[in-house]
Write a structure and sequence with these properties.
- This protein is of the alpha/beta class.
- Helices cover about 35% and strands about 20% of the residues.
- It has five helices and seven strands; from the N terminus they run αβββαβαβαββα.
- The protein has a seven-stranded mixed beta sheet with strand order 2-1-5-4-3-6-7, covered by helices on one side.
- Helix 3 (about 125-135) links the parallel strand 4 (about 115-120) and strand 5.
């Protein structure tokens, strides 16, 4: 008579203890310490972003210099033509990692505030990149600046954001990643 095969015993999961068993105390402490560390890192990142928003922006005159550009369809865009309503100028590039964090925030702001002109001044030179940009919706109007943009707008770091009021005055600027909701506080 053949012997019965022993019942298959599942290997204990490394995550959950077997029924009736408790995890070792050191594992509980390690998990608690890991959660605490992650919380502190999240708080530190938030504090760094808030403190970063307090640092200086771009050194600009009180009245915004002219910005000549063309949108993705080739239509000319001039900052002067947008007087009478607030304008957000967002200098960015597709290769910029910090810009990839800020672009969604700018796009959300633009969608929520159609009364504000939001121009994404893309600093990319490559024509292939421009063709790709034409096929994606960023939520804001993407423009290609004229060659003299860096002479008139001393942007030294990307992303950089400038808020211009309805009278053409620079009311705020920032170099670096925007805190979500920050444009809501800055745009008049």
């Amino acid at each position: 008579m053949p012997e019965p095969e022993p019942a298959a015993v599942a290997a204990p999961s490394p995550v959950a203890p077997a029924a009736g068993r408790k995890l070792p105390a050191w594992l509980h402490r390690a998990a608690r310490e890991a959660r605490s560390l992650l919380l502190w890192l999240a708080v530190a990142a938030l504090v760094a972003m808030v403190l970063g928003s307090l640092r200086g922006g771009i050194d600009l005159p009180a009245i915004a210099p002219e910005l000549r550009a063309a949108d993705l369809a080739g239509r000319p865009v001039a900052l002067r033509a947008l007087r009478g309503r607030p304008v957000v100028l967002y200098f960015w590039a597709t290769w910029c990692t910090a810009c990839s964090l800020t672009s969604p925030t700018v796009g959300q702001f633009a969608r929520a505030h159609p009364d504000v002109a939001v121009l994404g001044v893309a600093m990319d030179d490559d024509d292939d990149v421009w063709r790709e940009l034409a096929s994606t919706d960023k939520g804001f109007r993407v423009v290609r600046p004229a060659a003299d943009v860096t002479a008139l707008w001393p942007v030294r770091a990307l992303p950089s954001t400038v808020v211009v009021d309805a009278d053409g005055k620079v009311v705020w600027s920032r170099q670096g990643v925007l805190v979500p909701g920050e444009l809501n506080w800055r745009v008049p």
